[in-house]
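Researcher: Good morning. I'm working through a list of sequences from a screen, and I'd like to move beyond sequence-only analysis. For each chain I'm collecting a predicted structure so we can compare shapes side by side. This is the next one on the list. No need for commentary yet; just the structure.
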Amino acid sequence: MHSKLPRYLSKVFDRSSDMANQEESASAPATASSAASPAAADTPVSPKPAATTVAEPTTSAGSASPAAHPTPGIVPGLTNEPIEVAQHDDSEDDLDSALGEGDSASSTASLTESILEYRTLNGRTYSSGKHGSDKYWGPNDERQNEAMDMNHHFLTLCLGGNLFLAPLKDDIEKVLDIGTATGLWAIDMGDEYPNCEVIGTDLSPIQPTWCPPNVKFEIDDLEQEWTWAPNSFDYIHIRYMVGSVSDWPKLFRQAFRALKPGGWIESFEVEADYRSDDGTLKPDSAMIMWRDLFLEGGKKLGQSFTIITDDVQRKGIEAAGFVDLTVKDIKVPMGSWPADPKLKEIGQWAQYTLEQDLEGFVMFMWNTVLGRSLEEMQVFLATFRKEIRSPRTIHAYLPQRVVYARKPETA
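Model: Good morning. Structure tokens for this chain:
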């Protein structure tokens, strides 16, 4: 059940006319013939993931409830060992993303017009301070939403086609997805657990109306006091909230309160710090400038972009009272440089996600927060784009971390 690939991909590709021909192969589990190296096609094709096993918990205070199925795992090769570099030919350099803007739009008919009042900065829309933080650095318009859809896909690939790593039972009843964004994780979770209520929350009403009947979305600010009743959820999923949380310990404390005894929390985060194991990422690289941009902007906003370096997830989850804690570190390659076909595919999807909306990822920090010119930003992005399209000369990856833990039965 957990080895299936996401079912939403046909909806994602409907948004990108340039990828329409890949819709059927990407929205269903791949056959043996589709498991060839992604470099052979303009758009990667998802192979069926191999079964893996997650390590035993690193911290224990009592035995965990038995799971009804084996715990899913991360794709082999993405953990701490160096990633083997592929031999590239000239045709693989300067890989174009070939992703265009779609014509579909999310609707939120049940919300009042005031909720839809976004801020507009440099032609891009952002969540309004009237209904949440005005410090969130990412846009919420269609172009960025398409990037978030692709982001969900490659993160799911990193977990071997799975939606989570925590050892959940098949009979869970209620799940909360904090920072649901375009809602695709919640929709996939609702498909996988049709008898479970799945609730996704976000600052922006950018979720689709097509979703399973057991899935619903709510506008909410995770920074405020939660109104969920204590002991309500079997599982709380928190993913990619880097730069969005000013008080991580409070977030984990509120999640602890909202979970049922024996329930699980899972935090999946990234650090804006490109690295290489073979010295191909130079100190003057645009990828290093990317890190410095978010570090400097984050300090001005009072938001952390060093979640992994500071061990924020582990410390906060342990301090909140969780037990049976497991930490899994992941290296996500940027681009097509890995030799392993599955890792190459993940790297290509990571590249495609960025190239879908490079401006959207950096514009708020670059111009609104740090006051730098848009002309300088375009020069920077041209260099950055060239670097991530250079698999023969730069072998960069982004560190990511998954932490999951259990609320004690006696809590």
